[in-house]
Amino acid sequence: MESLVRGGTRWKRFAVVMVPSVAATAAIGVALAQGALAASFSVSGQSFKVSADKLDGKGFSQYGTIAQGKDLNGKAEANPVAVSAFQSADITKLCQSVVTPDVPFFGSVSLVLRAGGNGTPVHADNLYIDVADLTADAEFGNMDIGVAAGSTDKAAGGKGPAVQTPGKGGPAINPNGFAQQADTAVLTGVKQTAWATTAGTFKLSGLSMKLSKDAQECY
Fold it and tell me: Which whole-number Å values give the CA distances from 194 to 136, 157, 162, in the listed order?
């Protein structure tokens, strides 16, 4: 499932597939760990799980949109999502996992990516996560709740301008939809189901990426 096109930005894509070559996977992993690539994590027609001990973000926005893509049979489909966007974020003990069932000759195949567990957090700039479900303990600094970009209405005592996306390249916002923003956002004990994760820069310290022939998930 791919999310909406990120503005006019031409993202270099990290396309996660279930049967990559070992050499290609290793090369991409090294480049990501060194911060050399913009990155996206998505699998056509499937959501995936993401967990983290802590996400410390700046320039936070959250708003609703539609993730457009194709299912495993190539048929177009759309899913409503809440986009969590950060101008920058440091993530401790990040885990992303996807399980693909009914792979010929294998059955279920899992891909699990872990990083930021070696004392150096994962760092991301212009991070967008298309979230279907989220649980966490959250603390927001200088928060503003209201309607989305294009409106001057300030709901719930909002003290700032209408919510905007952090920087260039964000997915489209419903101008009449509910949204919120904050200068800072700290989430602990993060567990979420997502359709896509995209970042302008994604530096994965201590990267580990594994394929296995059974169902393994982050939580």
Answer: 14, 30, 25
Strand positions, DSSP E, 148-207: 178-203
Rg of the Cα atoms in the chain: 17
How far is 107 from 101, CA to CA, in rounded Å?
6
CA distances from 216 to 82, 111, 213 (A): 25, 8, 9
CA dist 62 and 72 (Å) reads: 28
Separation of CA 172 from chain center: 16
Can you give the pLDDT at residue 22?
Answer: 38
Higher pLDDT: 85 or 157? It is 85
Q: CA quadruple 115, 204, 49, 183: dihedral positive or negative?
A: positive
CA-closest candidate to residue 55, choices 96, 95, 89, 88: 89
Structure tokens at 143: 């928060």
Chain position carrying tokens 């603390």: 139
Confidence of residue 69 (pLDDT cuts 50, 70, 90): low
Amino acid in position 57 = G
